[in-house]
Design brief:
globular, alpha/beta, 21% strand, Rossmann fold
């Protein structure tokens, strides 16, 4: 478990730490506490920069940390009315690491994205299925499929919102998506990406490459 925590911590640092540590009085919204690795990092940043962390989790994690820079909200992340009553209007960073299901991620992202400041970051954990794939180091069917579906869902949302946010991925461990909010525009509904991978044209292209290389 220590190695997994170390990899997770490294992924957090690589993805957004340098951006967040520069923010004065940051406000951070976190969904999912569990082992407290991300929570610990966020509290440290908030204590250094006079910020505030709001952590939401269905499991009671209120006793895991003691800091005036931290508020724990014991709730589901999709209990929108309750959570909204207990958080400020805008955040510098929103971090999603709760229920890893593509439809749930989409629901949470679309609801809380307006709470993100322009120039802020929305971070989504667990978007890479590589390490969970068959015969790989952490082979796990559900994690593989859920992460791949989440990755594809994020791409579909980005497909219709390229003018509204920038998107980057970190593929260390279970992966992480980093979304940078460029403006205050309302997000457009997701748009399917039409691939030509399985078309006759691509099939003929592959045949031509085989002939050309022989």
């Amino acid at each position: 478990m220590t190695d997994l925590k170390n990899t997770y911590f490294e992924k957090l640092k690589e993805t957004f730490y340098e951006d967040l540590i520069k923010v004065e009085k940051p406000t951070i919204l976190e969904f999912g506490v569990r082992y407290g690795v991300s929570t610990s990092l966020f509290i440290d940043i908030c204590e250094k920069n006079l910020g505030k962390l709001y952590s939401v989790d269905l499991d009671d994690s209120s006793k895991k940390f003691s800091s005036s820079s931290w508020k724990f909200i014991h709730s589901r992340d999709d209990n929108f009315e309750y959570v909204t009553k207990n958080i400020p209007a805008k955040f510098d960073l929103i971090y999603l690491d709760s229920f890893h299901d593509a439809e749930h991620v989409k629901k949470i992202f679309y609801y809380y994205y307006p709470f993100l400041k322009e120039g802020g970051y929305f971070i989504i954990d667990d978007i890479s299925w590589i390490i969970y794939s068959k015969n790989n180091i952490r082979e796990h069917f559900n994690s593989e499929i859920n992460n791949q579906e989440t990755f594809e869902e994020i791409l579909k949302i980005f497909n219709s919102n390229m003018n509204n946010f920038d998107l980057n991925f970190n593929f260390k461990g279970s992966g992480m998506a980093k979304i940078f909010k460029k403006n205050e525009n309302k997000l457009e509904p997701e748009k399917k990406i039409y691939s030509r991978k399985y078309t006759i044209k691509n099939f003929l292209r592959k045949i031509w490459r085989i002939i050309k290389n022989n």
